[in-house]
Amino acid sequence: MIIPDLFRLNDWNTRRFNLFIWSILVAYDFSFISNVPLYSLEILSKILGFVILTFIPGYIILRIFKVHDIDRVVTLLLAIGLSLSFIMIFGFTVNMFLPYIGVSKPISTFPLFYSLNISILVLMIIYYFRDKKFNSSQNQLRITFSPMLFYFILLPLFSILGTESVNHYNFNMPVLILLFVISLSPILIALDRISRDLYPFMILSISLAILYNMNLISTHLWSYDIFYEAHTSKYVLENGIWNPGNKTMVPLLLFTILSPVYSLICDLNVIWVFKIIFPFFFSLTPLALYYVYKELDFGNYKVDYEIAMLSVFVFIFFYGFYKDMPDKQHIAELFLALILILSIFNTQKRILLFIFSFSLVVSHYGISYFFVFSLIFVSMMSRFRVNADTSFLTPTYTLLFSVLTFSWYIYISAGDVFEVITQVGYHFLSGIKDIFQANNDGRSASAYLSYLSNGILWVIYMLIHLILQFFIFIGVLNLLLSIMHNKTKSFEIALLTIIFYAFLFVQFFKTYGMGLDRILQITLILLSPLSIWGYSFCVKNLNSVYARIISKRIYRNKENGNRNYSGSLNEATHFSSFRGKIGYKMIPF
Asked: 266: pLDDT confidence band, cut at 50, 70 and 90?
């Protein structure tokens, strides 16, 4: 079946694009102004509001910057990232300037509604004069229906039904069945039972199913930092304005602007913004990482489609992916993944890099400062490489990102966050000499290993994570050798990976305010492929040892009169045909 390619709206001709955008906007505006839900379905107006906020600005901005003819899923990811960035910048501007013209509550329903319509109109006018002559033939999408496609469509739906059965009937069997079925997904990849064309949809489906399976349990918020962040959003909604000088609120546009705007435009309680909309945003992170992974080339280790998929499963199946409600850290990871995509695909649109960098800064201070230090390290080390390829990780970008980060947290948050970070930095530098000594940091790896428990599940849990860390360590050693021999082509990503691992290594002894589970979840963004590399390396070498043993057995049998020669030869033949598959496909998830 052939349908219009909605993933590539920016590649439609001007007439079709204008008609589509204005149709959605007019339908939503009519529903809003008349206060009559379309077709008596209140959910439809909420969906239209979600579409307008999540997709429309991003696709218009892509046309303004003339970004065309790239992969459809990458286009979708960039459009959503740009939309979220636009909403935060737009809301921040409205919040700062509307009070000067007499609007005392700019973050309220009607001021936001009219301001959003005007801003979209301005974007459409700019795009029309910049990109009205563009014409492309890539505006159709061919869909091939298959059992696997329906299977992945049903996973998120089954997840939602499973949480409903828990909430209303206290019956969790559907949830357990769902988790078991999802756990079989890597085996389907290893056995080549799924078409590569379905890989992106498979990632999105499984991510949504896992996240909704956790987040939709209960109708209330749960987790840790989310309560403080939700308080900030509710405060803004109640007062209709965000005062950056108020130190009782989180100084992040994610909660002072983005979540209140979604709550007002979609007519949703802010709790459901955190439980439904934010998990959708975070489910895009593994999808973005898949497109980063499959382009990596570390010399001796070229990531292909299957390895990229298995690496994504390492990221998704780690419990840090779903143990908390998606908050500042998780949305910041999405923007970090989008920055990595820009480095891989090299769209030559530096303005997109600036936009996503700003969005990362205003989403999470921890990842922002960590990325600043990582960029400084990469910039310093890149100077020692001969004939290094030009990339986005230039000293200029490092300086720009550093200025963005420090400026925001010094001036907007009255320096509170900056002061905390400098204290952590001082504590880190002054405590380097004691880093390997015993300490009372209860969230470090050494503390976790010291926990005493007679439960078999805890023992299995520790063994799984120790095995994961061992494979990552082997992968890092291989990556270091590849860098030393100047074999890696993804050089700057390789350097980022090394600094990510160094940061993780420190957490084994001291966490400096962030638990090991959070740091591991962040660093797996780049360390996941190395775990597969480490596993492949170990299995390959075990295969070599086994091959030598069989060869010696064949030689001895041949010397002893060929009595067992035939059986050993058959064993060797079967082994040699099997060893090519065992390298990375039998992953112990």
From this structure: very high
Q: What are phi and psi of 269, to 5 degrees?
A: -60, 140
Closest CA to 115 of 55, 52, 58: 52
Residues 6 or more apart in contact with residue 516 via CB below 8 angstroms:
443, 444, 445, 448, 507, 508
Per-residue pLDDT at 471 exceeds 50: yes
Which candidate, 107, 98, 6, places its Cα nearest to that of 56? 6
Q: Say how many residues make up the chain.
A: 589
- The answer to whether 565 and 554 have CB atoms below 8 angstroms apart is yes
Buried/exposed 77-112: b ≥16 CB within 10 Å, e otherwise:
bbbbbbbbbbbbbbbbebbeebeeeebebbbbeebb
- C-alpha span between 260 and 215 (Å, rounded): 19
State what percent of residues in the chain have pLDDT above 90.
46
3 membership: H or E segment, kind and range: strand 2-4
Q: Are 236 and 263 in contact (CB under 8 A)?
A: no
Q: Which of 287, 290, 339 is nearest to 311 (CA)?
A: 290
Distances (CA, A) of 66 to 1, 76, 134, 161, 279: 29, 15, 9, 42, 30
Q: What is the DSSP letter of 389?
A: P
- The answer to whether 537 touches 478, Cβ cutoff 8 Å, is yes
32 vs 89 pLDDT, higher one: 89
- 521 versus 347: the higher-pLDDT residue is 521
Long-range contact list for 99-106, CB < 8 A, 24+ apart?
Answer: 99/241, 104/240, 104/241, 105/239, 105/240, 105/241, 106/240, 106/241
Amino acid (one-letter) located at 504:
L
How many CB atoms sit inside 10 A of residue 433's CB?
Answer: 8
Contacts of 142 (CB under 8 A, 6+ apart): 1, 2
| Degrees to nearest 5, angle at CA 279 with 324 and 144 | 135
> Considering only 8-12, 59-63, 65-69, 247-251, which range has the smallest mean pLDDT?
247-251
Give how far Cα 10 sits from Cα of 71, 99, 180, 426, 468, Å.
12, 35, 39, 48, 41
Global model pTM greater than 0.85: yes
Band of pLDDT at residue 366, cut at 50, 70 and 90: confident
Domain positions in the chain are 2-142, 153-426, 535-585
pLDDT digits (tens, 9 = 90+) for 78-114: 999 999 999 999 999 999 999 999 899 999 999 999 9
Could you give the CA distance from residue 501 to residue 527 in angstroms, rounded to a whole number?
A: 7
Nearest to 210 by CA among 315, 347, 356: 315
